[in-house]
Amino acid sequence: MKRTLLLAALVAASMGAHAQTKKELVQKIVAAQQPAIENIAKNIAERPALQLMQAAGSALQQLPTDKRELTGKQIEADLRKFVDEAVPLLRDRAMKLAPSVLGASFEEKFTEDELKQLLAWLESPVNKKYQQVAPEMQNAFAQKLIAEAAPLLDPKLQALQQKVRGTLGLPPPPAASAPSSKPSGK
Questions:
Q1: How many CB atoms lie within 10 A of CB 17?
Q2: Sign of the C-alpha dihedral, residues 7, 13, 17, 20?
Q3: Residue 106 burial (CB count, 10 A)
Q4: Strand runs (DSSP E) across the chain, as ranges?
Q5: Ramachandran assignment for 169, one of left (phi > 0), alpha (psi -120 to 50 degrees), beta (any other)
Q6: Are the C-beta atoms of residues 123 and 33 closer than 8 Å to each other?
Q7: Does the keyword Kinase feature in the UniProt annotation (predicted)?
């Protein structure tokens, strides 16, 4: 009986040590992910501002030419202020939320050995170098893709825009023909 209790106590203690080790690994992984977590928060904060900026760009075209620049700068300043206030707020909230949400997912989906491998990768010089060069590589790829796909997609996009304008009962935009004729006249 004593041996059974002793064995049960040893098993419970080893499981507790195992769980603690796994929790520590998860904490380190979440900490290593801080730049990515902050970037997600930044993107979430900037998304509505970008959408408003796009909508404002269309609305600005309806204003008299002499009011466009001043109004555009005012809207831009308001959007910048929003982003400047929203980014730190969301970043702080994301960092508080990450351990419970991401940490729980890491604990559930990965074994202790996998967490060790993941942490080793995240802390490796190769990963750090990759994180530094990835944005440049992705940007170059995106530019090349846009350049090659534009001739294929532009006619389809223009047709879609015309169809949507027609569905809405809007006339063709006069501003679209004016800028294209000005550069050719110069």
A1: 10
A2: positive
A3: 22
A4: none
A5: left
A6: no
A7: no
pLDDT, tens digit (0-9, with 9 covering 90-100), for 23-70: 999 999 999 999 999 999 999 999 999 998 888 888 888 888 888 889
Query: What are 12's two structure tokens?
Result: 């419970």
**pLDDT tens across 154-186, in order?**
898 888 888 887 887 778 776 544 444 444 444
CA-based nearest residue to 110, from 126, 95, 121: 121
Token pair of 152, please? 């294929």
Rounded alpha-carbon distances, angstroms, from residue 153 to 52, 149, 166: 25, 6, 20
Q: How many residues does the chain have?
A: 186
- In this structure, which amino acid lies at residue 83? V
Instruction: Take residue 24 and report the two structure tokens written for it.
Output: 């520590």
